[in-house]
């Protein structure tokens, strides 16, 4: 699902009417990474099309107020998946690659070797960020590191909320899809960020 930020000093979400059938009740909170924020939700009339035509390259739009996006540190240029469970909307996936403690060894040149591990990225989208425990602000729960940029097929320095899934084993020889599968082993967990009418990635 794509997203558009709009100006509002309050934490607000606006869902396209095309997914109204999936919402038993409008969500009252958003979960992104390890953080959760209370918010107000609305439907907007502009219809993005049928749900079965909701793809990575042609996603429906979710409107997020700038105050909510800034609080949760949601990147503006990435495509996410959502799932609404009861009165909470999950935005993801968010995947962290935990580096060692020697921060001076890790830079954009170092991460170039891992680009070929991201071939499956467009099957699920979301955030992939590499960081060490020394680059985490534990007070505001933000990880600073190198985020994968799918448009340029490269890495960039960025920050976001600490991811919900953190892969801490050696990922040098692991493809991202394998990392995702090993992190979310059960069907419920593995599909937790997918729209309810879609099957988990196999």
UniProtKB/TrEMBL annotation:
Protein's name in the database: Uncharacterized protein
Organism of provenance: Neobacillus rhizophilus
